[in-house]
Write a structure and sequence with these properties.
By secondary structure, this protein is α/β, with parallel strands linked by helices. The protein folds into two domains: 109 residues, Spore Coat Polysaccharide Biosynthesis Protein SpsA, Chain A, CATH 3.90.550; 104 residues, Alpha-Beta Complex (Spore Coat Polysaccharide Biosynthesis Protein SpsA, Chain A). It is built from nine helices and eleven strands. The strands form two sheets. The protein has a nine-stranded mixed beta sheet, with helices on both faces. Strands 2-3 form a two-stranded antiparallel sheet. A hairpin with a 2-residue loop joins strand 2 and strand 3.
Length: 256
């Protein structure tokens, strides 16, 4: 089956952040972080890009850079709720058949990863697609801040030719068992998603799941309700900016 014909990229962003206040507007070489993310999304060349903003200050920064922004309810509990509202505003005629959700704190994101997240949707049985990268740093195996994607990728990297497997679970714990990795790799989940439009509509209408609330992982709501998530394996982990130290790393990587 061909990939979705008319995807749209939506970037949810809000100013409320406990570890890095006003994070989307953080300065990186004279440019707000959210503008760097918008640029990476534009470079993916998948389709139109909109920033779904909780506050007018974010919209102003994006529009000043030549981008498109949509104001949304600041009280949304999650990014998926925010992009769903934005989708309805920008595309009431339902032209876009898939939505790529790019986090607003990935200013160094490789545009190839944005393109890669659509690949699992070539299978018509897949509702939602996401990414994972093999864990190589031992401390990440037991770090609860590193979400693990449980998916049965063939150990021979050429085994299935496409590096895509069905997600069986996501957890902050070290899963599958055998934490040293000798029994097989663990995978670091990358929070980049592609939704079929109907899947996003269904997902946001579901109540929070039991496992979702326990693990604090929204994607478990989809699995609890029988939705299919497939994971595409990639080789690079994008830098997520959550702290002042992360911001300095991003500035170093994006130095002119």
């Amino acid at each position: 089956m061909p990939l979705p014909a008319a995807p749209v990229i939506l970037i949810p962003a809000r100013l409320a952040s406990t570890r890095l206040p006003d994070k989307p507007l953080a300065d990186i070489h004279g440019v707000p972080m959210i503008v760097h993310v918008w640029r990476r999304a534009m470079e993916a060349e998948l389709g139109p890009v909109f920033v779904a903003c909780a506050e007018a200050a974010i919209a102003a920064a994006v529009e000043a850079a030549g981008g498109q922004a949509v104001l949304t309810d600041p009280n949304h509990p999650s990014g998926s709720d925010r992009i769903f509202e934005a989708l309805g505003k920008i595309d009431p005629g339902r032209r876009h058949d898939a939505v790529v959700n790019v986090q607003g704190d990935l200013p160094t994101l490789d545009p190839a990863l944005i393109r890669r997240v659509l690949d699992p949707l070539a299978d018509p049985a897949v509702d939602i697609a996401t990414l994972a990268v093999e864990i190589t740093r031992e401390e990440e195996r037991t770090d609860p801040n590193v979400v693990k994607a449980v998916a049965a990728f063939p150990e021979n990297r050429g085994g299935n030719g496409d590096g895509i497997a069905r997600a069986l679970y996501f957890s902050r714990a070290t899963v599958p068992a055998n934490a040293d990795g000798r029994a097989g790799p663990h995978y670091h989940h990358i929070g980049l998603y592609a939704y079929r439009r109907a899947a996003l509509e269904r997902f946001v209408a579901l109540p929070p799941g039991i496992l979702e609330q326990r693990e604090k992982l929204e994607q478990l709501r989809a699995l609890e309700n029988g939705m299919r998530i497939d994971v595409a394996r990639v080789d690079t982990l994008p830098l997520g900016v959550d702290t002042p130290a992360d911001l300095e790393r991003a500035r170093a990587q994006l130095a002119p």
